[in-house]
Each structure stands twice: as structure tokens, then as C-alpha cells.
Amino acid sequence: MTNQEIFDGIARRDNRTFLYLYQEYQGQIQRMVEKNSGNAEDALDIFQEGIIALWTNIKQGKFQLQDNAKVSSYLFALCRNLWISKLRKRKDFKPLEESNDLSDHEETEAMMAQHEMISELEKHFRQLGESCRKLLSLFYYQKASLKTIADQMAITEKTAKNNKYRCMQSLKSIYQQNTNPSS
Rounded distance, CA 107 to CA 62, Å? Predict the structure, then answer.
């Protein structure tokens, strides 16, 4: 299955997709858990919790499929973090052994940070006015030219360019206000 098929299948709660994830990735999660003070039952629990967290994050828009993102890497990161959390609660936490089965730890951390940043940016984006959201969506997400945007919004190309600048400034201002509430 492609990343897009997996993503769409999870969003639809398609049983075939969940079966595919189990067949493809449950063994790798089990090896990671067993190498790090766990057993097969722990691994199954963590895998199931990871699947639920993945589905929840997709439904809530916290995880969106990006060009270079892999659903499997995100699932591994979720399971790894769930296992670390469970080990901490047991009070027998030791740093996890690295496993060749899992994606590179730095790549996973960077991907999770990127998703958190995107989620935060989307929260600020929703605070913009409708016309700014439309203009920026057309320009940045749909890669529309300023001419195309101008035609769709019934404005001149120069106005589209000026509005894009103003909208970006507004977004930056909203971001700064929310990250530095005292200013």
C-alpha cells in the first residue's frame, strides 16, 4: 500500500488497512519493545495504542501526510514514545536500545517536531480572516500563481501580491502574540 492509501484507509477506519499495518509493522514494534524490557503482550498493547493514537491524530488533523512523511515512521515514533512513557511509569526506565528496524531516531524526532510546528501554524492560520486564508491557501498549498489568485478572487495581480504580503504579516503577528503573550 502507498502512504496515501494507508493514510486514507486509517481515516476511513478501513479494516484492510489496519490488517496491513499489523502484518507489516507489528513485528518491528514487538522487537523494539522486547529489546527494551518488554514482552510480546506489552508490544501488542503498545502497537494497538499506537494505532489508536495514529487514527486520532489523523482525525484531529495533528498528522497530515506531507511529501516526505511516512505513516510508518510516524507510527513507530508514536509507539516508541508510548513505550517510553509506560517504562517511566514502571520506574524501570532505561534509555531505549536503538534498533535497525526503526527509522532513524533523529529523522523521527525531526518529523514529529515538524508535525507539531505545522499543527501550531494551522491553529494560528485559522485565526486569519477568510480572504487571507483563501489567498494564502491558494498560493502556498495549491501553488497557484498570483495571476490565477487575482482571477479567482476578482482582484488585480498587484492587489493579490500586496494582500499576500499583508496576510503573511498578519499571520506572523498572530504567531508572535500567541508565542509571546506578554508582548
Answer: 18
